Amino acid sequence: MKFLLVFDFDHTIIDENSDTWIVKCAPERKLPNGLRNSYQPGHWTEYMGRVFVYLGDNGVKEDEMKRTMTTIPFTAGMIDLLGFIGENKELFDCIIVSDSNTVFIDWILKAANFHEVFDEVFTNPAAFSSTGYLTVQHFHAHHCAKCPKNLCKRKVLKEFLDKQLERGVSYTQIIYIGDGGNDLCPVMFLKKNDIAMPRQGYTLEKKISQLAQSLSPVQCSVLVWSSAIDIMSYLKLLIKE
Length: 241
Prior knowledge:
Number of strands: 8
Number of helices: 10
Distance between the termini: 11 Å
Largest sheet: 6 strands, parallel
Shape: globular
Mean pLDDT: 95
């Protein structure tokens, strides 16, 4: 009996968007209008690449970025939830699927000592160049029309489950915890026995309820959360069963 927990990162594990938080490192803590307005829908990773070039051009170094990123608050109750999962790792496999990047997520999880809670992190690969600039790449290529160019979370989840099956691991239930529009695609992949946990008041919750209104509801059960304590209460019930 093993459960798979799938977490989004921004506005789910942390209470902010890591990509917009980094702007605190910019001169006057803001980006020039031309750069801000250069974002095109579906091309967030390319936009962040330009933001990182701007920060590098303005002399923002790795240690300053790291200091800034590790001040992001966790979502209410999340520290308790991750501690609980860490204590019950024999029951839970735990992965992150995020449109952030490897450097940010690594810094934040390690600073809070939570990196060992997660078995794998699927996100855009990032690294510092020899000149000290942060660079970010697409996670993968895919053919899903619903998702941003760089990341289809359904594809990530499906490939992870296939790989686990090859290793002889299958899950009693998948619990997907997220908040954003790009979390809908993987949620629609979940089966009747699985559970989607959208954050209250965020895009994912709204999209799931729109689907229910148009009589094409998701197959899985839906449990809305506002604090990660709600998620922990559900997991405690699961373990009791």
